[in-house]
Amino acid sequence: MRSTVYWIFAAGLELAAWGGATTAQAQQTTLRGTVADSATGRPLSGVHVRVLNHAGGTTADELGHFQLGTLPAGTYTVRAGGLGYATRNQTVTLLAGQPATVALRLPTAPLALAEVTVAQPRDPNQTLAVISHIDKLLRPVNSAQDLLPLVPGLVIAQHAGGGKAEQIFIRGFDVDHGTDFNVSIDGLPVNMVSHAHGQGYADFHFVIPETVDQLRVYKGPYTARFGDFATAGAGEFTTKTRLEQSQVKVELGQFATRRAVALVNLLPVNGHLLGTGPENAYVAAEYSFTNAYFDAKQHFRRFNGLAKYTGQLSDRTSLMLLASRFNSRWDASGQVPERAIREGLISRFGSIDPTEGGSTGRTNATAVLTTDLPHAAVLRQQVYYSRYDFNLFSNFTFFLRNPVDGDQIRQTDGRHIYGYTGTYERSFQLGSRTLRTTAGLGTRLDDIDVALRNSVRRTVTDTIVTGRVYEQNLNGYLDATLSLTDRLTLNAALRADYFRFRFREDRVDSLSGRAGKARVSPKLNLYYDVTPAVQLFVRSGFGFHSNDARAVVTNPAGNVLPRAIGYEVGSTFKPVPALVVNTALWALHLQDELVYVGDEGVVESAGRTRRYGLDVAARYQLTRSLFADVDLNFNHGRLVGEPRTANRIPLAPTFTSVGGLTLRRPGGLSASLRYRHIDSRPANEDNSVRARGYFLLDAVVSYTRRRFQVGATVENLLNVAWNQAQFDTTTRLRNEAVPVQELHFTPGTPFYAKLNASVLF
């Protein structure tokens, strides 16, 4: 409480001082630059850059670019440094009215958390920037399923074979496959609107994990750049602009697991293809196969391909081109009822309907053109296209509706996605202060063929619903960040979205139609640097998630764009030089929690909900080579307006934690022992059925030299019997006279070991 009073008092003094400051200033000029690895020339993102003896600073973006705003004419010392790189100073002289640039080159150095600066990143709303940057260097990533859990506090579960999108848990939400968490990669949206298997469906398996370079995390609805699905938060992934080395990697593991990856640079250092400035181009490919640990072999196979070019076409223009292809096919064992195992009908890894499974594919193409304009403005424009296919056979209720042939269904989704995003960034001088503004404009159009059919052993018997969805989102926003004082920063934004829905059912007696809906979402955030080692923040904002277009058209009176209202107070601080801590006390109110029931093709409303919680993330360097990390997430959520005996939010986690120890030796040896935990929680509204929690240990070890790398991974080191996805479901087995309601689950991975070896060139 005392620290809060001090903050408010100090902020008041700073505001008073700013209000009385004179606006008579010397003519100012802009300082911009780039940061790169001194050995490879690779752009460095996340590096902190500041001017000595001046408050504030910034971080380099994914291309290594930074802008330090405007300064009076004179001579300055610019300092840059980051994790894994030595700090370097460079002197620069600024002339009045003449923009200046500086190129900084940093040599590698041992990791030292004492060098981490707790300061505002380039985007002040990225309050987890420091934590994410540390995790990028320390946390091992072994598969595409390891990418989303890089978000602090996010836990995943799989429940229909390895080719299907994971179920996501974050901030007290079971967001299903993405209804309340926005995911993107290189500006390409991952979430699917009006998807055959659930609203916001986010299949991230088209990403090759070895190509991912950076993750930016935004929790809560506080950032104007994100609209639909960004209620609990958003995760922005970016792939590498250049490979440090080309690589061929092979993995072999239990359950007939095998994987091969190749990443190859196409241009030599200082090579040229389209422009006269620095250019980089590479290709990557991945093939995976496994039978998994189920009694029925899963025959899972996946192929990924990627090509990316990034280049400086001129002094003022850069271009990024990316194309990728993904396809996957698998068999699945589905969810199993506890009674079937208890009665000995199947083993824990058995199945009631072994003919479940599916296939999916995605083709992406995108281009980003970034142009430096007069007055230190930057125009960024992106166009993208995706072709997506999805085919899934599932059986959630076994023989409940059809006691002879079973209740298997087939869900299909084929779509084209077209999109454009443009931003215009410019800084203005307001007296002695700098106002940084971003104006954004975008649109996304989904053209979808979607269907739900009954099937028997993957043979379609009849159609439940099929039709065509056209859904377009038009959006624009204005985001402004003002340094009110040397310590206090204000960020305010306003976002507007308009959705057009159209659904045309193929049947003659269809309920086809059109609808439109707009949503305005204001944001207001404050950041205060108490000391160079302590930053406080207060954030608030409105957000939303959209409803399925079929539900919107067939029920115009329903909730089309349910609003979310969020607010939080927190801090990023370093109590000692080697310890970085981020905390946030938050609350989130949702106007309507929507649940898509895929086996019936309808959207159910759970009504209003409210959640609040506490997030704690800590990163600590124990010795020169040993690091510890822990994420603790406490969540409390309830349905609003329901009696206390029936107001639980099904499957909403109340406590999750992830952490571990990581060893990084200078000679190339690295190892990590990691745990993840989620507690038991209600599986239905009255808490009569509970999803079971678990605690798991994983281990990773690798040895890297200049030309090769070898390693091993063990999942579920203690061979714990644990449940992944869990649901309270009413089902009937073949010989049962009446249905039974109980917990159904997908069994988690048992002890699982795999080896890998890479050649680097």
Radius of gyration, taken over Cα atoms and rounded to an integer in Å: 26 Å
Strand content: over 45%
Question: How would a textbook summarize the main sheet?
Answer: 22 strands, antiparallel, barrel
CATH-derived architecture of the largest domain:
Beta Barrel
The amount of helix comes to: under 10%
Mean pLDDT over the residues:
89
Please name the CATH topology of the largest domain.
Maltoporin, Chain A
How many DSSP H or I helices?
4
DSSP strand tally: 45
Shape: globular
Total domain count: 2
Short description:
By secondary structure, the protein is mostly beta strands.
Q: Care to describe what's here?
A:
Helices cover 5% and strands 56% of the residues. It is mainly beta. The chain folds into two domains: 2-127, Immunoglobulin-like (Sandwich); 130-760, Beta Barrel (Maltoporin, Chain A). The strands form nine sheets. The chain has a 22-stranded antiparallel β-barrel. A four-stranded antiparallel sheet has the order 3-2-5-6, with no helix packed on it. Strands 12-11-16-15 form a four-stranded mixed sheet. Strand 33 (594-597) and strand 34 (602-605) form a beta hairpin.
